[in-house]
Design brief:
The chain has helices at about 20-30, 40-45, 50-60, 70-85, 90-100. The two termini are about 15 Å apart. The protein is built from five helices and no strands. Helix 1 (about 20-30) crosses helix 4 (about 70-85). It has about 100 residues and is mainly α.
Length: about 100
């Protein structure tokens, strides 16, 4: 039997599922800024790429930029989510242990 020396995996969607965390970012942003949720907001954020949502929010709410571009804020937030909140998918831990 040949030794496996390299495994390439798609992390998100294979080992973890973070889509709900990504999709919550615009909602969290408007709630933390005490902005009333615009009508149809949830459908809107699911209809276009997240970076476009961020760009539009920067135009509509420029004060949100006080901590840097919105997408950079979201990336920092997601880094924390990946480290502390996004769970492994069923079987992922056992699979990784097997590969180890």
């Amino acid at each position: 039997m040949k030794e496996i020396k390299l495994i390439i995996l798609d992390f998100d969607g294979t080992l973890v599922e973070s889509m709900d965390y990504w999709l919550s970012l615009p909602d969290v942003t408007i709630k933390e800024a005490n902005i009333p949720e615009p009508e149809g907001f949830r459908d809107y954020i699911r209809s276009i790429p997240l970076w476009e949502v961020g760009a539009q929010m920067e135009k509509d709410y420029p004060f949100l930029l006080q901590n840097g571009p919105i997408t950079e804020q979201w990336y920092r937030h997601m880094e924390d989510n990946y480290r502390h909140h996004v769970p492994l998918r069923t079987g992922a831990a056992a699979f990784l242990q097997l590969l180890r």
